[in-house]
Specification:
Chain lengths: ~260, ~400
């Protein structure tokens, strides 16, 4: 992909957690956002985090080849949205990249939506690739389930969230990670009200859904237990191949799988 | 109502033939008789009748007599009781995904949750955009249906849809909004709506009870419990679907006429992706070949023409016609295709396990008695090569027809 030198890209990064040990690390999806940003803006990519500038996990992003990162100083249980919104509103950023879900805390994935609402910018969900940027309009590919892609046209500036369909992040190198600078800034703090009433607990495994048979008589229960999984569909015998093909074709049309 | 009496010549014949194995079952049994010692004997199994709920009832008032030997005709399909909410005191609004125009199982779970939240007082509203193919809104638990159609809601139009939902919010002021937290649209639409309404939603919710809800948090290692907010994005299997009531599906309208801002996202349409590169577990349309495929050249050609991802049974892989990575089944890949087209596959359990979650299965096979045909929604009996050839031609014809139309 050609680098868009003139595009001003900001990637929002958060601290992740290792899925097994729970140790802090770079978050998987945010790293993908950084990767996409590196493809678009190269060394000019701007990294932004709201939180604690002391946390070592943030260096994982610097190790991807960036010299510095801006950290808006925020305590643990703060609502980071106003700080991020007013900071971004004051910069000349044209594209803000985020992950689609944080790995620690609530992880509701609301941040990109709220940020777009606050800045009144359009939002692209599930960005997979930026194809071109011309005259203030970007053509992008959006990732859909089942490996499908949709082409969208969107006006700059915009917010885009990235999920696991985006290209995989490069490795983080230790040396550059240690040399990189975390530039911290003091900003106003707004407390997050939710955390006072919600409680976190370790995730319980969800119960498997049982197949409940609502039968009133023994005979019905017997029938339900011995019935075949599907009561059979249409079987076409004694037909020409053309008729068979026509029937299959009609079904494929109806299910809209023929493109 | 008494059913009309019918003679059954076959049963009468068995009843006359003392050597027939079913002879004894068809002998009319007397309800009472005088035994050898002169005592009156009664057979309790003969008296009584089968009540409406399938239980045996004995009416001792003497009104009911000798219904036992009557042949019962086919029973009418059970009508579930209809629930009518004339004046709901509040509304619960569900925005189903309607994947392929039908309620998905995730949607039905949400409607089930909505019905528990609605109780006896509230009404469940479903909002459906664009044309649909669903016929079962009544048994899925929809009291009111808002069906929105028009240019503005075509294809992918999250901003316009959110505008409409905001208008509905002012009109009904629902007690809860329920949206499936899915990748097929609900997760995005629900979050956009939350941002627009300024509601803080609960996400990935898997349990709602007593005004509290529990949802997954972070990367899935933790749960978050909180009082249930107005907007809930719920995971699949958050509740049981409605199963024993029928609902009205009364149509409602938006009072307000909508003025759409020019959308800031322009949809330029789907991009052709190479089906060979889509991972099989994710593929939407799979053409799978087994031992019944004799002409593999033709099979590959068919996959290309149809735009399908290729799959195979174990025998086809073992025989070296397909790479191991393409094997579908217990020891291969578990696929989730919407349409699974099985050519010359007999349907061994190990294979059927792998396609258990496929939506529509089509079988091409020579043997009408094989298990794959029993599983299939559509089975075409015949030679695989001839049918594939005909199918290729039919699709080519269609593609060319489409090209003429466009020109
Ligand atoms: C431990 C274990 C694990 C296994 N795991 C898997 C697995 O993961 N996946 C898997 O697929 N199998 C698996 N198997 C193998 C499985 O049991 C079956 O042997 C296999 O699925 C059969 O493949 P088939 O249907 O292609 O072949 P067959 O059973 O030979 O069926 C061929 C079918 O093609 C039809 N046919 C023949 N000629 C034509 C024609 N000209 N036109 C149309 N139809 C025709 C026949 O009527 C028949 O129905 C496993 C077996 C074991 C023991
Ligand atoms: N403290 C933070 N600083 C910067 N970006 C963040 C922060 N928290 C979350 N984000 C971004 O917002 C995305 C979604 O977060 P969330 O809404 O918390 O699930 C994440 O993937 C990050 O890109």
């Amino acid at each position: 992909m050609m680098p868009h030198e003139l595009l001003k890209v900001v990637a929002l990064v958060s601290v992740g957690a290792h899925p097994v040990t729970g140790r802090p690390r770079r978050a998987e999806q945010d790293a993908r956002a950084v990767e996409l940003g590196l493809c678009l803006a190269g060394k000019h990519l701007h990294l932004l985090h709201a939180g604690d500038a002391e946390s070592e996990a943030l260096r994982g992003y610097l190790g991807m080849g960036l010299a510095e990162m801006t950290v808006l100083q925020q305590p643990l249980h703060a609502d980071i949205l106003p700080a991020l919104g007013s900071y971004l509103g004051a910069t000349d950023a044209q594209l803000v990249l985020t992950g689609s879900q944080a790995e620690i805390g609530e992880g509701s994935g609301m941040l990109p939506y709220l940020l777009a609402e606050q800045l009144d910018w359009p939002l692209v969900v599930g960005l997979a690739e930026v194809e071109s940027v011309k005259g203030g309009v970007a053509q992008v590919l959006q990732a859909l389930p089942r490996g499908q892609r949709r082409r969208l046209q969107v006006r700059l500036p915009f917010v885009a969230s990235v999920d696991s369909a985006a290209p995989k992040a490069r490795q983080s190198a230790f040396g550059p990670a240690q040399r990189g600078q975390l530039q911290s800034q003091k900003v106003a703090v707004v407390e997050d009200m939710l955390l006072s009433e919600a409680s976190m607990q370790t995730a319980r495994p969800r119960p498997k859904r049982l197949k409940v048979i609502k039968a009133k008589t023994g005979a019905e229960r017997m029938r339900a237990a011995t019935a075949k999984a599907s009561a059979g569909g249409k079987v076409l015998t004694d037909i020409t191949p053309e008729q068979g093909a026509e029937a299959i074709f009609a079904l494929l049309k109806e299910e809209k799988v023929l493109r | 109502m008494k059913e009309s009496f019918r003679r059954d010549p076959r049963n009468e014949w068995i009843a006359r033939n003392r050597l027939h194995p079913l002879y004894s079952a068809l002998q009319t049994q007397e309800a009472s008789w005088i035994g050898p010692s002169g005592l009156v004997r009664k057979n309790p199994h003969v008296s009584g009748f089968i009540g409406p709920n399938g239980l045996k009832r004995i009416d001792r008032s003497g009104v009911q007599q000798g219904g036992g030997s009557q042949r019962s005709g086919t029973k009418a399909a059970v009508q579930l009781p209809l629930r009518i909410i004339e004046q709901p005191s509040f509304y619960i609004v569900v925005v189903p995904d309607m994947v392929n125009g039908r309620l998905s199982s995730h949607d039905k779970d949400l409607l089930g949750l909505a019905n528990t939240l609605a109780g006896d007082e509230g009404a469940v509203v479903a909002v459906v955009f664009q044309a649909h193919k669903e016929g079962g809104f009544d048994t899925a638990g929809v009291d009111r249906l808002l069906h929105l159609q028009g240019e503005a809601f075509a294809d992918y139009s999250p901003e316009q849809r959110v505008t409409a939902l905001c208008a509905l919010d002012t009109q009904l002021n629902p007690a809860h909004w329920l949206v499936p937290d899915s990748r097929t649209g609900g997760g995005e639409l629900g979050r956009r709506l939350a941002a627009k309404l300024g509601e803080r939603p609960a996400t990935r919710v898997w349990q709602v009870a007593d005004g509290q809800c529990i949802g997954r948090a972070g990367a899935g290692q933790q749960d978050m419990a909180r009082t249930a907010p107005r907007l809930i994005l719920a995971a699949a299997e958050c509740a049981d679907p409605v199963s024993d009531t029928r609902h009205e599906v009364r149509a409602i309208e938006l009072n307000e006429t909508l003025f759409h801002r020019v959308g800031r996202l322009d949809n330029l349409g789907a991009v052709a992706v190479d089906p060979a590169l889509t991972p099989m577990a994710e593929a939407e349309f799979i053409l799978s070949g087994g031992n019944g495929v004799k002409d593999w050249e033709l099979f590959h050609q068919a996959a290309e023409t149809l735009g399908a991802t290729e799959g195979a049974s174990r025998v086809a892989v073992d025989d070296g016609f397909m790479p191991r990575a393409r094997q579908v089944g217990a020891t291969g890949t578990w696929v989730t295709a919407q349409v699974y087209l099985a050519v010359g596959i007999s349907g061994a359990v190990q294979h059927l396990q792998g396609i258990a979650t496929c939506d529509k299965v089509v079988a091409i096979n020579q043997d009408p008695a094989c298990d794959m045909v029993k599983r299939a929604d559509l089975a075409v009996i015949g030679d695989s090569a001839a049918i594939l050839q005909a199918l290729i031609e039919r699709v080519r014809e269609h593609r060319q027809g489409g090209m003429h139309d466009a020109a």
